[in-house]
């Protein structure tokens, strides 16, 4: 995973609704916050726990079905975007059609992509941090929650900042943050957050894609609440992460749809 995944361009909003791209800023993975032990025993067997600073590091024994479920998601995470792969090209074109229906795409390398919030004319250069799954996340969002997707893409809601976050690159940052937060590159969960998520993944194999949509929508809400501008993006991501961790550790969360922030999504 590219540690430079947080690089993005600021987007200046104009009075007529247009956008202009500005210089880059950087975000880093959000800090880990402590968690309760409410989820131990709900589907995963905790075999050890030890303190390291303020973070409880746990080890869980997984069943075969749990291992298989986690491995399928990890296999997705490992796929890098390949601009020569026809399926990847097809997915990128599908994202354009979902974002700007009725507007012809002139090419996979085009200045048009900047209007979606990519750093330059070639979106493939922005997938280093999130891989192909970050494109899959955006495409899933556009197809399953089109109303919320368009609201974020077009910055329709709230009193927006003069310098806005770029939609597409922010989406890649959300994917990257979730992979880090959920510890999805580990062989098995090493935190309660990871264990909770694996339970949700067992209940719904698209749990990662759905929580991505929740996170993106929640991030935009935090952005508005904090009256943020592009210099505040890292702080917004950290605040979003803390909110997600609190929600995932609520005792009555049995499905992704039970998360309080799920209600913010609109189809």
From TrEMBL:
<dbReference type="InterPro" id="IPR006816">
    <property type="entry name" value="ELMO_dom"/>
</dbReference>
<protein>
    <recommendedName>
        <fullName>ELMO domain-containing protein</fullName>
    </recommendedName>
</protein>
<dbReference type="Pfam" id="PF04727">
    <property type="entry name" value="ELMO_CED12"/>
</dbReference>
<feature type="domain" description="ELMO">
    <location>
        <begin position="87"/>
        <end position="248"/>
    </location>
</feature>
<dbReference type="InterPro" id="IPR050868">
    <property type="entry name" value="ELMO_domain-containing"/>
</dbReference>
């Amino acid at each position: 995973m590219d540690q430079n995944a947080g690089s993005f361009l600021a987007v200046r909003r104009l009075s007529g609704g247009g956008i202009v791209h500005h210089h880059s800023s950087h975000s880093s993975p959000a800090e880990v916050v402590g968690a309760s032990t409410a989820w131990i025993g709900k589907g995963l067997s905790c075999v050890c726990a030890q303190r390291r600073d303020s973070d409880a590091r746990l080890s869980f024994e997984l069943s075969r079905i749990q291992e298989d479920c986690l491995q399928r998601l990890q296999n997705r995470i490992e796929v890098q975007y390949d601009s020569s792969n026809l399926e990847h090209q097809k997915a990128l074109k599908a994202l354009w059609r979902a974002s700007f229906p009725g507007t012809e795409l002139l090419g996979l390398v085009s200045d048009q992509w900047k209007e979606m919030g990519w750093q330059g004319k070639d979106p493939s250069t922005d997938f280093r941090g999130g891989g192909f799954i970050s494109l899959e996340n955006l495409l899933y969002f556009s197809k399953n929650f089109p109303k919320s997707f368009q609201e974020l893409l077009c910055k329709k809601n709230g009193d927006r900042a003069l310098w806005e976050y770029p939609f597409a690159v922010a989406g890649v940052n959300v994917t990257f943050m979730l992979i880090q937060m959920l510890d999805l590159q580990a062989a098995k969960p090493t935190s309660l957050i990871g264990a909770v998520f694996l339970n949700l993944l067992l209940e719904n194999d698209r749990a990662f894609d759905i929580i991505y949509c929740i996170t993106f929508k929640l991030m935009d809400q935090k952005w508005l609440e904090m009256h943020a501008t592009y210099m505040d993006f890292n702080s917004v991501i950290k605040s979003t992460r803390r909110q997600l961790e609190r929600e995932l550790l609520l005792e009555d969360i049995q499905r992704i749809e039970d998360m309080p922030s799920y209600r913010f999504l609109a189809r």
